[in-house]
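Example 3.2
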Amino acid sequence: QVQLVESGGGLVQPGGFVRLSCAASGSIFSIYVMGWHRQAPGKQRELVAGITSGDSTNYADSVKGRFTISRDNAKNTVYLQMNSLKPEDTAVYYCNMGVITAAGARDYWGKGTLVTVSS
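Structure, written as tokens:
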């Protein structure tokens, strides 16, 4: 059983910053991809950023230059540094990891952490 736990959400003012963390626990052989998605009220979930085991990254156009994804393989943790936040960044942020265990490879999701950008 693999569990992902996010932390770091909250209320932040426009122009501010916040750092999200997501740690995986369980019987993990390796994690080949990590990512962050978000879902705003009334909208579909969308990919925000992803990072591979080789540290290749990709970002949604709406966050390029403002958000940075990184990973700590020793801690099975992925981070999302979010700068210059805008009200439209308000959403529940979910981390997602492609994990290899003894049972094989599958995707896992966290329960989400709410980020509210408002003055």
